[in-house]
Structures are given as C-alpha cells and as structure tokens.
Amino acid sequence: MDSNRVYLLNELGYRYHQINPVRGLKLGEEALEIAQSIDYKYGIYDAYNTMGSNHFTNSKYAEALQSFFNALKVAKKLNYDQQEISLLQNIGAVYCAQNHLREGLKYFLQVDSIRNQAENPDPRSQMITLRNISEVYINLNKIDSADYYILKAIDISNKTFNSTEPNILLSYADIQREKGNFNEALEALNFAINNLEQNGYTSSMISGLYKKATTFQKMNVNTKAFKEVNKGIKIAQENEFDDLERQGYLILHDIYINKKDYKNALEAYHEYKRINDKIYNQAQLNQLAQVQAQYEIEQKQKDYLLNEQKLELQEAQLERQNWIMMSLGVGMFTTIFFLVFLFKSNRDRKRKNTILTEQKSQLYEQQQELMVQTEELTQLNEEVLSQRDHLEKVNINLNDYNNRLTDSISAAQIIQEALLPFENRMKDSFQNNFVIYKPKDIVSGDFYWLVKRQNFHFLAVIDCTGHGVPGAFMSLLAYSLLNEIVEAEYESDPSKILNLLHAKLIKAISYTRHGKKHDAGMDIALCRMEYLENDDCKITYAGAKRPLYYVKDNQLQKISGTRLSIGGNKRNRNNMEFSNSELSLSAGDSIYLTTDGYIDNPNKNRKKFGTPMLEKLIEAVHGLSMTEQKEAFELALEKHQGNEAQRDDITLVGVRI
C-alpha cells in the first residue's frame, strides 16, 4: 500500500532530522514523490513538513521556509488546524534562526492569537509560544514586553501544574537580570537548575548554570561566575556536549575580559576556537562518510549487475555449445550407421539386390521420419530454453520483489524498535525490571510503552489486532495516539486516557477510504505509578481485556480489565467507559503486565500455556531477582512450546518496586 509506505518514509525521515538531516531529506523527498503520484493529501503535507525539519537542522533556511510554506498551503486546504499552528511556530523559529527577529515575532504572535481564540487551548503549547515571544523581545531589548509575556506563561504554568516550568524560569531570570533584579534572577535560576537536575534534563541544566554565571558577572562577583561556568563546562565535557562546552568557553572568555585578565581570556578563546573547529570538522567528516557510503553502495550495485550479466552470458554460451555437441553426435551416429549398412548391403548386393532395394526404400522413409523428429526435437528444445529463460526472469523479479518487501519490513522494524523504551530508559524509571519481547514475525502487533511526566511514570503493555505488518501499523498508530493524549493533551488519569484512546482510534479507523467498516482494535494494561516519600508506590490501573498481576506481602493478586477492547466493531463501543483501580505497594513488591501471546502459545498437542500455569509460575519465581525471573519465564515458555511455531506476538514486563 503506497499510503503506508509514505507514512513510514515520513516517520523515518522526521526521526533522522536530528542525526542525519541529509538522509532524512531524501526520505522526505521520496515520500513526497509517491504521495503526489497517488494524490495522498495528508502524505503531501507530512512530506513537506519532514523536508522542512531536515532543511532547518541543516541550516538551509530558505529551503526550510519554502517547505514549511508548502505544507501550510496543504494544511489550510484540508482544515488541519493543529498542524497549521505547528507550522506557523516552525516558520517563526526559522526566521529567528536567521536573526530576522521581527518577522519571526509576527508568526509567534499569530500562533498566540489563534490559541487565545480556541475553546480549550493546550496549556503546554501556549507556554512554549509565550516563551518564544518573550525570548524575541529580550533580543530586541524590549524588556517590558518580554516581561509581560513571560508572566503570562508563568500564570498558565502555575494554574495548570501548580508550579512554574523550569525552562520558563530560565527566560524569566534573563529578564530580571536585564532589569537589574539580580537576587530575583538568581532565585529563579536556583529553583530551575535543581528541578532540571532532578529530572535528568542535563543540557537545559547546563544552560541554567551559564545564565547564573552571566548574572554573577553582571554583579561583578567574578569568583562565583567562574565557579558556575566551570561547573557547566565540566558537565558538558562529561556528556560530550560539544556545542554547550563551546558556549561555556565563550562565556568564560567574556568574564576574563570583564576582569581585564587578557592572558586567560586568550586561552579561553583558544579553547572555544578548538571546539568550534572540532564541531566543524566532525560535521565535514560525517558528510564525507555519508557520501563515501553512498558511493560504495552504488558501486556494489553496479558490480552485482555486471556479474549477473556475465553469468547469464556464460550460461547462454554453455547451452549453445551443449546443443551443437548433441546435434553433431546425433549426426555422426546416423552417418556411421548408414555407412555400415551400405557396406554390408554392397557386399551382398548381387545376392540380395531385391532386399537392398526394399531396405533403401525403408531407409529413406526412416531418414524422412528422423528429419521430422529432429526438427520437432529442435523446436521442443527451443521452447524449453525459452521457458527456462522466462522462469529465470520471473525468479529474478520475485527475488527482487521479495528483497524490496523484506527491506520495507526491516525499515518498519527499525521504526518500531526505535519507539520501544530501551533498557536505559526502563532503568531510569525502575531500578529492577525485566522485559520479554518476542515478535512472531519481523515486526510486531505488541509493544510496551513508557512515559515519565513530572512525578508520574506511565507504563503500559499493548496488544494490537493482528501481527506482522498489519499489527505493526496498528502499534505505530497506538503509540502516536498514546503520546498525543499523555504528552500533548497532558491527560494523566488512566481511565480517561483509555477513553480518549478508544474515541481517537474509532475516529481514525472506523471506516476505510472505501467506506467499509474496520474492526481493528487493541487490548491494553496501563499503570500510572507515583513514588511517595516513604518509598511506597501508589499505582492507578485501567485495562481493556488485559489484567494487572501484582505480588504484595508474597501473595499474588490480580485486577482484571474490562471485557471489551479499545476500538473494534462493537455495537456499544461508543458508550464504553473505563474505570480506575488503585493500590499501594511497598519496596520489594512487584507487578506484571502481559499480552495474551504468552498464555496462548501452544505445545505439540495444541494445548495452550494457559492463565493458571502463568499464575503458578509468578507465585514460584517472584522472590528471585528480575534477571533470574526473566530466565525462568523464558525457559518455561521454551519447554512448553518445544519445536512448535510461535502462534502470536509475546510481551511480558515485570517491575519490582
């Protein structure tokens, strides 16, 4: 399906914009070409947006603006309000990156005006826009205007989240510093830096330290300014943040200049120049490596095609030689036989003249039949050769199609695996955990999902309808919708998250473009986990056909989800309501989330592993370490399954509090 290919190309192209914008741009251009050929409007919009993001990262601002404006035209025609707002924000950012601050400000103000007129504007998006406006006014040296907009952002943050977002505080501190309110600026910076450090936002924390150093410099407290900037440089070095390290040395240079210490100022500038050259050289090396890799791939393809052509020519020559040798052999055999016959006939010619005449007549008839048979054999051989050539071409085409299909599925696998929480992300939220993730095919309809937002950790295991490619597309859609609900719409109540997920999925896939109903859906177990001051963990659970198992005080307990799935073609699907269950666990207790793939896996007698056996297994192994538990679950499944093929995608996640 070309529309699915467009979606995958755009998804992959957008993900490349931070790590390889050249590659990301090519993927966006390929998506655009396919989308235009099938008149896929949303794909055209998405491709232009992908191209714009990659141009922006690559500092090609004119091309980025052209792509974003093209995307904006499509979004306006299709009434994509949210996408239109996002594009206006991007356009403003591109203008500001070129130092066209007033032009960028015009678009940011337009976004703010649209959001103010909306019935339920997203508070987080509002704050981002207001902060962008404030930053522009700071650079335009209009401090009062900057102060007005940052205070609006602070007011929204306090009303929505009962606290001020740290990145907003960084901008607020810049304004207070410019107004000469140094103590107020330092107070805001200290609060923001502590918050950023606790939540692991290292790069933003370094920026806060640099702002703190600049504030001390303005106060002529150079000792403290040196301390803060050197602390930031050290953290940047430890995390290999070259750009932030470069910024730190530039600030250090300014502090030395302010102190009239020109020798150390020169050394700081040399460090700044060294890192700047390193960043530039690395960018050049990356670009050269990309060009070299592309050249090697193209050269290998050419060599492969040349070898294929040589092989086909050699096979054709060999076939022709075999046919000539066979024809000569038949001819020589016929000639020898005829000469022997003539010799014997001539010897007995006088005695058997009448017989010789009859034999000659018979021989003539045999020769005629042999010629006819030889001609038929030649035609038959030509037909066989033609069929063989045709079959070889068909086989080549099939191999080519299979390779392209496998490449496409492998690309989908890269995207899907990129969405899963990696081990380091799981460990950031849960010190003791294990994950068993076994797709039936290359890609999977199962996935597990983790999002950390403020003090909440959201963990879910999702089983989408089907497996393989259809299930994988459903999992991508489910992943996108969950992120939209929790991170963009900022919903934190698990039951409401499932209700919204259900409604959005129904809207997205209830009808195909041919008007036919679609009954695709998903089962899900979702937990919101909140660690309390006494190390206890408060868990709020909501589920659709998937239960929550937990072990508390060495006793296994189970909370069942609703009996209906998310989505699906049910009569009462629009009236479904999911509910929450709450429990409190202590250190050493554990929870388990699983799809039905584990319990449905059959053995050689077609008997499923089953829920009772799974529950007995949890009771038996819950006291082991998480690594040992994972091994036990995998061994039990392997012994049960034997040599039988896996029936469904399998996902099992365990977490110890």
Structural summary, described in words:
This protein is an alpha+beta fold and 657 residues long. It has helices spanning 2-16, 21-37, 41-57, 61-77, 81-97, 101-117, 123-139, 143-161, 166-178, 182-198, 202-218, 222-238, 242-258, 262-347, 353-419, 423-429, 468-488, 494-509, 597-600, 611-621, 626-641, and strands at 432-438, 446-453, 456-464, 521-531, 537-544, 548-552, 555-559, 566-567, 581-585, 590-594, 650-656. The strands form two sheets. Strands 2, 3, 4, 5, 8 and 9 form a six-stranded antiparallel sheet that branches. A five-stranded antiparallel sheet has the order 1-11-10-6-7, covered by helices on one side. Strand 2 and strand 3 (456-464) form a beta hairpin. Helix 12 packs antiparallel against helix 13 (242-258). The longest helix is centred in the middle third of the chain and has 86 residues, at 262-347. It is extended and about 140 Å long. The two termini are 44 Å apart.
